[in-house]
Amino acid sequence: MRIVCLLAALLLVQKIYSQDSLDNILDKEVSAQQALKPAKVFATFKGTHLINSRTNETIKKNEIDFRVSHRFGDIAGEYGGENSFFGLENSTDIKISFDYGITNRLTAGISRAKGATAIRQLYEGSLKYKLLEQTANNKMPVSVTAFTNAVVSSMASNTKANTPDHFDQFSDRMSYTGQLIIARKFSDRFSLMLIPTFVHTNYVIASDQNDVWAVGVGGRLKITKRMSLIVDYYKTFRGSNSIAQFKTKGLKFYNPLGIGLEFETGGHVFDFNFTNSTALLENQFIPYTTTSWLSGQFRWGFNISRIFSFKKNK
């Protein structure tokens, strides 16, 4: 009987030893595979926005980005100058937003904007998903992020028909934006992105068009440890008939251009900018920028962001 028990104990020890050995081998194989994975490129841009544009960056899981954006009035031109203290006594748009990281790659956002065209009092819901991430070995040379939003106006409907703010039904208040944000970090100092964009507005006046395509370009050049030069620009593609129709009404469309300085101050990212865009949401500033840099119709603006973390301390 003792011999049988001794043999059973030896078999049990042998089994445990074999299992430990197998686990060690598997752990080493996993570690080796992870070591072979190319390193991802982080912080292509400092935040989720540049000036007017979104960047490829998303919010980390269980974090919230609280953001305030503001655009003042014209610095020069008919409505600027010393009478309006170079636009500082006026505001064209104000936006408050919250973006939450559902995962490290998926961000959901809500915002409220004053609005800057005939359509005001805007609520926005948005989603942003990181599709591809740039790798250090250039096996994946760019990062690609998809962005989409839906915007609704809560303002009272204009009783006059064929005006931009005349709403027969709820869907007339809606507009949408879809973007692919293709970004590359060329070095620790320089990043660039290309943004193919589609904007759809459910209801437009007779001379307008529902769908507008555009392509945006944005860049960041680090000047010092905490300060960067930033710029973004959108080339908008409108139909010639639409351009001609609005021209007869004295309206001309311009491409939005923003230039600014970005500062990192601890947990804040702050940028101070100039732009000819009056609006803050893509649904408005891409198809409806009617102010020109050359006419002095550009303005001061700022964006300030603060990240709050809801991660549990381990």
Question: What can you tell me about this protein's structure?
Answer:
The protein has 314 residues and is α+β, with helices and mostly antiparallel strands. Helices cover 15% and strands 40% of the residues. The protein has helices at residues 2-36, 240-248, 282-285, and strands spanning 63-72, 91-101, 106-113, 122-132, 143-153, 174-185, 190-201, 211-222, 227-237, 257-265, 268-275, 299-309. The longest helix is centred in the first third of the chain and has 35 residues, at 2-36. The radius of gyration is 26 Å and the shape is globular.
What's the helix and strand layout?
Elements: H1 2-36, E1 63-72, E2 91-101, E3 106-113, E4 122-132, E5 143-153, E6 174-185, E7 190-201, E8 211-222, E9 227-237, H2 240-248, E10 257-265, E11 268-275, H3 282-285, E12 299-309
Antiparallel strand pairs: 1-2, 1-12, 2-3, 3-4, 4-5, 5-6, 6-7, 7-8, 8-9, 9-10, 10-11, 11-12
